[in-house]
Specification:
It contains 14 helices and 31 strands. By secondary structure, it is α/β, with parallel strands linked by helices. The chain has three domains: 294 residues, Rossmann fold, CATH 3.40.50.620; 155 residues, Ribosomal Protein L25, Chain P (Beta Barrel); 113 residues, Ribosomal Protein L25, Chain P, CATH 2.40.240. Strands 16-29-30-31-27-28-17 form a seven-stranded mixed β-sheet. Strands 25-22-23-24-18-21-26 form a seven-stranded mixed β-sheet, with no helix packed on it. α3 crosses α12, α8 crosses α9 and α12 crosses α13. 41% of the residues are buried. Bound molecules: adenosine-5'-triphosphate (ATP) and magnesium ion (MG). The site of adenosine-5'-triphosphate has 14 residues, from α3 and β12.
Length: 588
């Protein structure tokens, strides 16, 4: 574990800021009562023992994706490295699109990634909707201090009077109404006396500000929509830009880390917290917002809206479709939590937008699995190989390491016999140049077994090859003194037809053929790869138990995992997580 004393291996601008804040003791005296709340609550506490507080604040309106993983690894990772706490906070202030199903899926995924929101006795799992009462009190205080007013213009009028980048906005006719009137109207809004859109609460800042976000932004709007947690209790809901700083402050967040598009919101973030603090309702030091570049990954879309469209319109089979960049999809595909953490670590943190190639994610999975994944043999496109000089009905054991990098993992064994399955591509009747595998007259090693010499093949009436014939050289078995007596250039994998395990194997490819499927205004649906999933019936080495989630390296082929939802040892269904090499680069 890294700390200030033994700094993290890779520094970045956020670590630099945090280390400086810690050195200066910026948050050392911050009072914390052990639970979120305004000044009246925190004053009862003592200086926070968590040296920093960060948060991951998803909106429960969809499943988490690989972009969220970057934010999760960053926020939870910083808290861990600096002896702090990271809160998991559901930013559930927008009732229309939010559902409990998403809350559960998000909790599941953050845990799966290996992170934990508890700190000492605290269970730092929060819902922004629990703060609606505090937000309302703050809004009243802002009105009383002349910092907010109820505006009776509709959304269209507000938009039209906001001004542009080059022109100032126009003051609302309601901007200078007495505080008492705004307070009464706000209470009426809350009590459901006014229809959606008829009025709203706005901050009273500066309609001529060069930053449009400071031109009297809307704080509350009326929405007669039930909320997934508060039901019908509220019909006014806070806007994100007002809710978010308040949530951070109530939770004693020290470093509020968000993506770059919120940079222009930072002046408002500070303004609103300072105004509330002036009223004595929040304690200093206030949280500080910092921005980093979001993750953009090639060959995928990560907008929740677009992911929802893919799921809802049946382009994929649910949120956990193994082709999706959702964490549920990646898990099902065979990605490990460690591989995703490794990927995020390799990305680093920067303030410059960039697009990461999908192959970087794939390489992280290979690098994680190579040292640990057990090996097995599988044949995906089976062709029968008959060893014509091997006695019928007989079998003998062959041995292979479970993992060549890990001698302690031991050996596995499987049988060799007269009829084997090999890959169709490992035989050619007329081999091209430099083809070293099976062709009539050529010798190859059957990996972990014997050297065989190909004697020909059998075809059906359509001229398709249905069987390859070969003779084995009895003294050449791997691991015996005669193994090296004959030199061959080819080495092919095989399984014994008598005891191989049949399996459905799903070979996944990129979901999109375009590296930037949704760049600009492109129709990302048009870029869907029609061949993103190919299903084959293959054979697995005897003894391969396809318990859901079991993962192997199938030799020569890649990393595969037994499907979490559908696989069983009786009926194996296997997903290819990633090929051994980056085949996409050479295909295109
Ligand atoms: P989307 O645009 O897909 O709906 P979002 O940003 O609205 O995503 P939230 O649930 O609000 O989704 O995000 C929770 C947190 O995850 C936020 O702090 C956000 O900054 C972060 N996040 C979302 N997408 C990415 C990304 N691609 N890279 C890094 N962080 C991200
Ligand atoms: Mg959002």
């Amino acid at each position: 574990m890294s700390s200030v004393l033994s700094p993290a291996p890779v520094s970045n601008f956020l670590r630099t800021i945090i280390e400086k804040d810690l050195a200066e003791g910026r948050h050392a005296q911050k009072l914390w009562a052990g639970r979120p709340g305004p000044a009246s609550v925190q004053r009862q506490g003592s200086p926070d023992t968590a040296r920093i507080r960060t948060r991951f604040p998803p909106e429960p309106n969809g499943y988490l994706h690989i972009g969220h993983a970057k934010s999760i690894c960053l926020n939870f990772g910083l808290a861990r490295d600096y002896q702090g706490a990271c809160h998991l906070r559901f930013d559930d202030t927008n009732p229309e699109k939010e559902e409990d199903e998403y809350v559960h899926a998000i909790i599941d995924m953050v845990k799966w990634l290996g992170f934990d929101w508890s700190y000492k006795e605290e269970e730092n799992l929060y819902f922004a909707s629990d703060y609606f009462g505090y937000m309302y009190e703050f809004a009243e205080a802002l009105i009383q201090a002349g910092h907010a007013y109820v505006d009776e213009q509709n959304a269209e009028e507000i938009r039209a009077t906001r001004g542009t980048l080059t022109e100032p906005g126009i003051n609302s006719p309601w901007r200078d109404r007495p505080a008492e009137e705004s307070l009464r109207l706000l209470a009426e809004m809350r009590d459901g006396k006014h229809p959606d859109g008829s009025m709203c609460l706005r901050a009273r800042i500066d309609m001529a500000s060069p930053n449009i976000n400071m031109r009297d932004p809307v704080l509350y709007r009326i929405r007669h929509v039930p909320h997934h947690r508060t039901g019908d209790q509220w019909c006014i809901y806070p806007m994100y830009s007002w809710a978010h700083p308040v949530e951070d402050a109530l939770e004693g967040i020290t470093h509020s880390i968000c993506t770059l598009e919120f940079e222009d919101q930072r002046p408002f973030y500070n303004w609103i917290l300072e105004r509330i603090a002036e009223q004595g309702m929040l304690l200093e030091p206030l949280p500080q917002q910092y921005e980093f570049a979001r993750l953009n990954l090639s060959y995928v879309v990560t907008s929740k809206r677009k992911l929802l469209q893919l799921v809802r319109d049946g382009h994929v089979n649910g949120w956990d479709d193994p082709r999706l960049p959702t964490l549920a999809g990646l898990r099902r595909r065979g990605y490990t939590p460690a591989s995703i953490r490794l990927f995020c670590e390799r990305l680093g943190v920067s303030k410059a937008d960039s697009r990461i190639d999908y192959s970087v994610l794939e390489q992280a999975l290979r690098d994680d699995l190579d040292p640990s994944a057990p090996r097995a043999v599988a044949v995906l496109d089976p062709l029968k190989l008959v060893i014509t000089n091997y006695p019928e009905g007989e079998a003998e054991p062959c041995h292979a390491p479970v993992n060549p990098h890990d001698p302690e993992a031991g050996m596995r064994s499987f049988t060799f016999g007269r009829e084997l399955w090999i890959e169709r591509d490992d035989f050619r009747e007329d081999p091209p140049k430099k083809y070293f595998r099976l062709f009539p007259g050529n010798k190859v090693r059957l990996k972990y077994g014997y050297i065989v010499e190909c004697t020909g093949c059998v075809k059906n009436a359509e001229g398709e090859i249905i069987e390859v014939h070969a003779e084995y050289l009895p003294d050449t078995k791997s691991g015996t003194p005669g193994a090296d007596s004959v030199k061959v250039k080819g080495n092919i994998t095989w399984v014994h037809a008598a005891d191989a395990v049949q399996a459905e194997i799903r070979l996944y490819d990129r979901l999109f053929t375009d590296a930037h499927p949704d760049a600009g205004d492109k129709d990302f649906i048009a870029a869907l790869n029609p061949n993103s999933c190919t299903v084959v019936q293959g054979w697995l080495e005897a003894g391969t138990r396809a318990e859901p989630g079991a993962t192997w390296q199938f030799e020569r082929l890649g990393y595969f995992t037994a499907d979490l939802e559908e696989s069983s040892p009786e009926r194996p269904i296997i997903n290819r997580a990633v090929t051994l090499k980056d085949s996409w680069a050479t295909q295109k």
